[in-house]
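Sat 14:20. Reprocessing the chain from the morning session after the first attempt stalled halfway. Input below, unchanged.
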Amino acid sequence: MAKRLSRYSVLIPALLFACLMFVLPASALERDVQAKAVLLPASGAQSDAQAKVSLEQAIRIAKGVFTIPAEYMQFSSDYMASAEEAVWNLRWFAEGSPGGSFHVTVSAVNGEVINVSYHKGYVPGKKYSGFPKYSREDAQVIAEKAAAKLQAERYAQSRLMPEPVYDRPYLPSPGTRDYPVTYQFRFQRLSAGIPVTENVIHVEVNGETGEVQHFNVWWDVKAKLPSAAGHIDQNRARQIFNQDGLELAYVFSGARDRDDGSRPYLAYRLRDGGFLLDAITGILIDPDGEFYFAGDLGSGGMGGSEAQKLISSRLSPEESATVEETKGLLTAEAARRAAEAAYTPPSGVSLNRSHLSPNWNAPGNKVWELGYGSEEQQTSVSMTVDARTGEFLHFSAYEGSKIDYFQTPAVKFSEAQARTIAEALMRQLHPEKAKQVTFKNTRR
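Finished this time. C-alpha cells:
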C-alpha cells in the first residue's frame, strides 16, 4: 500500500460554464447573507480585533512612504489573511510599453510596510556604462535610512550582515551593459547580541538612481528565544568540534564518467554532512533529524508602531475607485459563514487562509477564496464565494488515502450517476440557475 492524494472536486463554475450553457440571474443565497462591511480587514484566519487597517489607510501609508511614479496610473489590490498575518497587497502599474510596476504590501494588523518591489519597464536599446552614480557606501546609507524609516523598531535590533559573495555586483567595465548595478543589504536580527537566523530586513538599492527597488522583512515575532544563560563557551565548542565534528574520508574529484587521471585524496570533512551543536547541553544535533536553516531568509509576522506617521492625505481617482469597490463587501468571517452554509468542511480541518481577489470570470466583481487544511488528515478544502452577495461559486477538496498502485481502482459510480449527483448539487445550491441550463458534453 502506498500513499497517494486522491482528488474529489466539485467545481461549480466549471459545471455551470464548461458543461452547461446558461444566463446568470441573482442567486437565492444572496437573500440569506446579510452581513456587510465598509472596511475589509476582518478575517476568519485573523480576528476582527487584530486586522484594523482598511484599504484606504493602507494606500495612504504606502504613498506616505514612497513617491509612486506618475506614469503608473493603473491600480489594483487584494487582501490576504492567514493564521500568521493579514496584509493588503497594493499594485500600481503602467499599461503598454515600457510598462513597469510598483508593489507594496502593508500589514492589515498594524499598518507596517512589509514588502516593496519596484520594477521599471525594460526600454529596448537603453544601455548603462562605466561606474554607477552611487557607490556601495552611498547605497548603504540609503538602505539604512529606508530600514530605519519603515521598520524603526526592528532596525534598532539588527546589524548589517557581511556582503555575501554571490550578491556582489560585477565590477562595471568601460563597455556597456543592459541592466543597472544593484546593491543588496541584509540587516540581521539580534537578541542579546546573538544573531537570530531567518530574521532579517532586506533592502535592494539601484546603483544608477539611488532608488530602493526591493524591501522585505522576515521577522518571527512569535518565536520564543531561549535564554543564553549557561551556554558553553567557544573554547568548549571548539573542543567538541575538533573531537566529533570532522571525519577523515576519501574524496573524489574530476570526471566520474571517464578516467581523466584524477585520483581520490584524503580530506577532513564535516561529519554526516553537517555539524550542529546544542549550545546549552553541548550535545551534537543530528542534521538529518530535522531541517535547519542558518541563512538569512524566513517568514513571520510583523510588529509596528510608526504607521500613522507615514499616512499620505490624497488618493488618485484610480485608488479611490478601488476603495469604493470594496465598500459593502462581506468580511472574511461573513464569507466563511456563507460558504459553510452551502458546504460543511470535513471534521478536523480549520480555516487557514482568506484571500480577497478579483473574480476573473466576472470582471469588476470580487471573490473571497477560503482555504482549509489539516496536516494530520492530509486533507485540504478550498471554497470561493462572491464577495458582495455570498453566492457559492467554487468548491474543491483533496483527501489523502492509502491506495494500492498495482490494483485496478474500483469504479463505484457510472458517468450517468455522477451527472445525477452533479445536477442534484446544482439544484441545491443554485435552484434558479439550474432551471436555465442545458447539459453540454465538452469531450466531443
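The chain has three domains: 2-37+328-439, 55-227+299-310, 234-285.
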